[in-house]
Amino acid sequence: MNQTMPIQVYGDFLDAIPPCEEYLTLNFSPNSAPRKRRWSNYGLSADFLGDYFAAFFPGDAALDSPINQRDTVKAAVSYIANELLENAVKYNEDSAGLPISIALHLYASQIIFRVANYTEEKLADKYQQFIRELLGADLDVYYMQQLEKTASCGESSCMGILTMMNDYAARFGWKFEASAQSPGTIRVEVLVYLDV
Amino acid sequence: MDIQADDYSIQYDANAATVYFRGFLRLDGIEKYQPVMDVLLNAIICSTQVTVDLRDLEFLNSSGISMLSMFVVKVRDRGDTSLTLVGSDKILWQTKSLKNLQRLMPSLILKFDSP
Prior knowledge:
The complex is a heterodimer.
Chain A: E1 8-11, E2 22-28, H1 35-54, H2 69-90, E3 100-106, E4 110-120, H3 121-135, H4 139-153, H5 159-168, E5 171-178, E6 185-195
Chain B: E1 3-4, E2 8-13, E3 18-25, H1 34-46, E4 49-60, H2 62-78, E5 82-88, H3 92-104, E6 109-113
Parallel strand pairs in B: 3-4, 4-5, 5-6
Antiparallel strand pairs in B: 1-2, 2-3
Helix pairs in contact in B: 1-2, 2-3
């Protein structure tokens, strides 16, 4: 139990994100259904979020890309939401019995994703170590190092976060705090900013 | 050896020395990609000029991208096999992420076609 753990914040974290007119939140109830079944539900949810937010953008042909803005938003939202949900599920402490949530907020030229889940202290420490390493490194160099490492050792090496940052130019903010509802677990909140 | 699932298929065409990926591929972690990797590894046992056709692969999660990077490094380290990746310029993840695989293996040929 670590009731005194201070709140740790990294990157571009905001407690209160700016108000917006369009937003959508999904909460996934904690349950004991087989992970395989839940896994496909998270993928479907990511696709739904992509379709939902793409509908706010024009589908006219783009001048500088074979993919129009609507399809770009759909694919980027779906990829990012899927990666964030996969991470939340992989590292979730199911025994806490608390929901995983994902919210998307739409602005004129940006979408903000906010994902929260609960994890055990050891995993939260390991995650924070990775974040400190990442924030202290040159992204391009670090990305290639981790990709090579993943390719050689077959370990995942947080490629999800690295692809979102490097390939989709997403910016991240993180907050870790001891859960009041589930002593001994850490609430992890991730903000991701995607320019659209 | 081919894989046919609800959301995706992986098919090896020996005559064309080409592995075709189709659909939505988001398996739960890199370990779950081993059967897919086995199809790819079989292709480089059968031929020294292999093509991986991704034009109909609409979605690949980061574990899948990691699996592709593992395959590229295996081909690179063999040293006697040429590898071509064919992607679609209409599928966003391919336009964003495939070029990084070429950085792992500069001799990799990366072609973008419309499906």
